[in-house]
Amino acid sequence: MTGLRILATGKAVPVKKVTNDDMARIVDTSDEWIKQRTGMSVRHHVSGEENHTGLAEQAARKAIEKSGIDKAEIDAVVVCTVSSDYYSPSTACLIQGRLGLRKDIIAFDLGAGCSGFVFGLETIRALMMARNAKYGLIIGAEVLSKKMDMTDRSTCVLFGDGAAAAVVELADNQFTSVIGVDGDEEMINIKTPNGYIHMDGQGTYKFAVATVPKVIEEVVAKSGFSYDEIDHYVLHQANLRIIESIAKKIKQPMDKFVVNIEKYGNTSAASVGLALDEALEEGRIHPGDKVLLCAFGAGRTWGAVVLEM
Ligand code: ACO
After folding, report:
1. pLDDT for 21-68, tens place per residue?
2. CATH code for 3-171?
3. Ligand 1 atom 1: the closest Cα is on which residue?
4. How many angstroms separate the CA atoms of 275 and 293, rounded?
5. Closest CA to 307 of 196, 171, 144, 184
6. Rounded distance, CA 269 to CA 26, Å?
């Protein structure tokens, strides 16, 4: 079996909501500027005891519960992130312990910026094929509020905290992927373990609107479907204008695009999973639907998959 089926998803966001007006009390910005340039209204930031591992754990527990599987049959855990609690150990190892998963599994963190969840799907599929695994657990989790320079208005308004998880199994369904890297240090980076996010916003915007439509074109062609046959487009939630521009370029209606950036901001490696989970929870995505997931981010990285639910 070379396909990958998503059996169930789960998500977790911190309790504290931070509105655009709240951000305007911290830096020189406004609700109007943020909404107009990005489509964001609210993001969540951790507070009190909340942390990266806790969010990842909550999302994973929900996905496992919804899937109905026996957690003892999980053979691989991949956590996609750039903002874990520790430089080492990995969040994936902490999840193995907290969830009481078997000890003879493989568990590690994967860093591919905002492309994390898509890189994670491709990685866990390959791992599961190599290890003849029954179930895999993929988690995208970020606490970017701890990586933001709260005096830099060009980045601190954009990011939010959250986690999304999926329980997956190898299957005979359609799974087509296109993954890429064009090594770059400057576009988006966090230069030291305790450093802040630096981003060339305009450069990232141009990279996204130029690259994503090409990646989508490639993965759709490779899948054998047409744009019209794809039921849902779940893109990285970095900027509503980027999503709208891509929809226009590939001539697909906006109602086929899952958009939740207004509620969470850019949650990096969690974003595609969060959007997917919401669409599933809302009953918008059904078994058998063809879904295209696509993300881009630091690295420079990009990835897209077409899969049947
Ligand atoms: N509030 C008010 N004004 C602001 C703010 C703010 N929060 N931030 C910047 N500005 C100002 C700038 O200083 C500039 O002022 P100036 O003209 O006087 O110099 C003006 O607004 C315009 O700035 P731009 O950077 O040109 O604004 P732009 O329209 O490009 O929007 C944005 C910025 C939203 C960051 C956009 O470039 C973008 O979305 N880029 C893509 C980001 C992205 O996709 N990231 C995903 C990957 S992240 C990852 O992988 C971790």
Report:
1. 999 999 999 999 999 999 999 999 999 999 999 999 999 999 999 999
2. 3.40.47.10
3. 29
4. 10
5. 171
6. 25
- pLDDT value at residue 193: 83
Output the CA–CA distances (angstroms, integers) from residue 49 to 150, 161, 219, in the order listed: 20, 14, 41
| Secondary structure class of 189 (helix, strand, coil) | strand
pTM reported for the whole predicted model: 0.96
Instruction: Tell me how many degrees the CA angle 273-276-279 measures, rounded to the nearest 5.
Output: 150
- Which residue type, as a one-letter code, is found at position 94? L
Which residue has its alpha carbon closest to ligand 1 atom 8?
Answer: 154
- 3-171 and 175-308, same CATH topology: yes
Q: Which of 78, 60, 70, 71 is nearest to 8 (CA)?
A: 60
SS3 144: helix
CATH number for the domain whose boundaries are 175-308: 3.40.47.10
- Ligand 1: does its nearest atom lie under 6 Å from the Cβ of 35? no
Q: Where are the domains of the chain?
A: 3-171, 175-308
Q: Is 93 a catalytic residue?
A: no
Catalytic-residue membership of 114: yes
CA of 186 to the centre of ligand 1 (A): 16
Residues 233-286 pLDDT 10s: 999 999 999 999 999 999 999 999 999 999 999 999 999 999 999 999 999 999
Q: Which two tokens stand for residue 71?
A: 């957690």
The pair of three-digit structure tokens given for residue 181, joined into one six-digit string: 């890297």
Between the CA of 27 and the centroid of ligand 1 the distance, in Å, is: 14
pLDDT greater than 90 at residue 169: yes
Query: What pLDDT, on the 0 to 100 scale, is given for residue 77?
Result: 98
End-to-end CA gap in the chain:
15
Strand-by-strand arrangement of the 290-297 sheet: 175-181, 301-308, 290-297, 232-235
Q: Rounded to 5 degrees, what angle do the CA atoms 73, 136, 133 make?
A: 65
Cβ-Cβ contacts under 8 Å for 298 (sequence gap 6 or more): 82, 112, 113, 114, 187, 188, 189
